[in-house]
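lol ok so funny story. i was supposed to be doing the assay writeup but got distracted and ended up predicting the structure for this chain instead. priorities right. anyway since i did it might as well share w the group, maybe its usefull for someone
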Amino acid sequence: MKDLYRKLSVPSTSSDAQIRAALTDKRSKLSAEDANDIECVLLDNLRRKKYDHVHRTVQCIVDLRSQVRIKETSGQERANVQGFISATQRQGTTRHKEEGLGSVGCLVIAVIGACLWLGSSIVIEWFDRSLVIEKQKKPEVPNIRIAPDDTPFRNSPSPTHAFPPKPEIELGRLALPETGVIQQYENRESAAPLEIRTRVGSGNYYIKISRIIGSRLVLSKTAFIRDGETLNTTMPVGDFEIRYAVGKNWYGTERFFGKSTSYAKADDVFSFRETLQGYSGFTVELYRQVNGNLETEPLSADEF
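and the output, tada:
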């Protein structure tokens, strides 16, 4: 630890103005390191308070060592107290007053001085290291970001209220097929018109149209209708049943619309016939409406 006051030739009670004036006057005679230490320590109120506390302790120890004639034993100890001199040296004399000190008194003082010197080495080292850390410490930057409207605001803690959980995302989502027939299973002439309408917001539909043969159902064709669109197709003559799956996201003909799929069937039998005027057909509207004449029945996935 250096005696910065001695390097400036000013007392430790000097004011900031006196230290600044002395530094300006002696800067050319000081090393760059000493000048920087004086400026960083003695001209900073908080650091100077810490330094003065350690400075007084070290100066007392140096004076005590001089009185009891404790010699420096290593270069490290000398380096720790650069520039500190005892009171007798400051008075220009090396004479020590030993009157009144018996051998026991000198021994006690020597032991106390050694303990204080050991403690001061720890204090000095702590101060030097803390000074280096403070020199390297970066100034704190307030946590500020810019809002979308260029209005600066400080980040605030997250609100304590709970947000609704995010919906579960199913893997394997596919692009929606175009509205139209997906698969034709019967190789028969199809001429009877069938129109199936949906309303915007009602969902996407996967349609299964099956021929009724006695108590059995034989799949005739499948189709897809996008939300709000209309399917126009033709059917062969015969009796048919219409079942459908409805949902939003498409996962293919095995999973349909995933976990959110709803299944149903129309209770009516759709009989397509050939008449003298041509072929009879149907228009089906797959959405709820007042005075509707088509009843539907919900199904399970296995029944579909």
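The longest strand covers residues 204-213. The chain is about 30% helix and 25% strand.
back to the writeup now i swear
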